[in-house]
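Form P-L/3: holo structure prediction, ligand flavin mononucleotide.
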Amino acid sequence: MSILFPPQDKPELIDGRYYYPPPQRLESVCLGTLPLGTRYCLSPLAKYTNLPFRRVVRGCGGLGLATCDLVNARALLAGSAKSLALIRTCETDTPFAAQIFGSEPEYLRDAAQFLEARGGIDVIDINMGCPVDHVTKNGAGARLMCNLSRSVELVQAVVEAVRLPVTVKMRLGWDETQLTAPRFAREFEQIGIRAVAIHGRTRSQGFTGSVDLSGIRKVVEAVANIPVIGNGDVRTIPDAARMLDRTGCQAVSIGRGALANPWIFRQLSQWEQTGWYDPPGNFEERLDLVRQQYQYHRELDGEEHGLTAYRRTVHWYLKAMRVRAGLRDRVQHARTGDEFRDALEAIRGEGPVEGSRTGILPELQVPVPAGPVERW
Ligand SMILES: Cc1cc2nc3c(=O)[nH]c(=O)nc-3n(C[C@H](O)[C@H](O)[C@H](O)COP(=O)(O)O)c2cc1C
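OUTPUT (holo model):
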């Protein structure tokens, strides 16, 4: 039974700031010897959690750790330009976890050593949660959760190969008949893993249903000393409060919620101190953020490729800003920096279709990939 969870459902808005009862004092979080500034982490989102996105989220404040999109260990070692692009980082992008996936211990081990030698990476994260068919059919991602000895062998190979803290991100198990996460987490802790992140769904659930907080709690209870990072469906401060309280996890990671609201990490870290926190960015501030991230993409990949890489993310930013569909399409179809800037200028001129330029905009839910996981 919960004793900490605050009885109220909604934060109160008083004089332009929110209040929601804060948690009881929580211990700070360390991954081995690496202390995190806050317990709020950015979950990897393939095609979104690139360096420009991580930079803007860090700029909004409150982020404890960011992880890049999953990187194929074998392709990385083969020098794939696409894989190397995913691990690009910069001085301010810290602490930074590089997430690798694969099913062969030697490749994972060598990829981890390669990343450590490259520098700029603070944590190696092993993916055991990816549900996508083309990853699981090769024995990687969530498929590893069906084979304890193989997974232990793989994790051990990585832990022994590097000095960096190694973490594992997993789901509750393959399906409801194989809820292996607690057992796996306990075994991984014994071989030197520094944290586990756990998305509270099984692989067969994909993104359907709701996150099983009691399943995450079982993982927390299974480990002795390492932090558990609870993940799934956290979009608001009450969602995070529930995650912390009902699971006993030490940290929380947020994926889609950060696309709708890149300020969520700052809000969470403010809330934890006193219960008071600022609203997310308003229309004008979000427009600045849209421009800023484009600038980062341009610096990294040039005008044209930068725009291509930015398209998916800017779509969600503009939806959250309540920009009308016709103008969002104009941004999607911009081929040059000038076209992009002109479209933003039109957006600035029109303002939001709902809410005001300087007030709090209505909340946005970012949907998940639809359809059976085999076809994603
Ligand atoms: C588009 C998309 C891409 C994702 N890519 C990854 C990934 O590369 N590695 C990973 O471990 N999880 C990945 N995930 C899972 C998320 O990290 C996270 O576990 C999941 O979305 C639940 O958290 P959320 O509700 O806060 O988004 C992805 C999820 C989505 C929706």
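COMMENT: Residues 1-6 have pLDDT under 50 and may be disordered.
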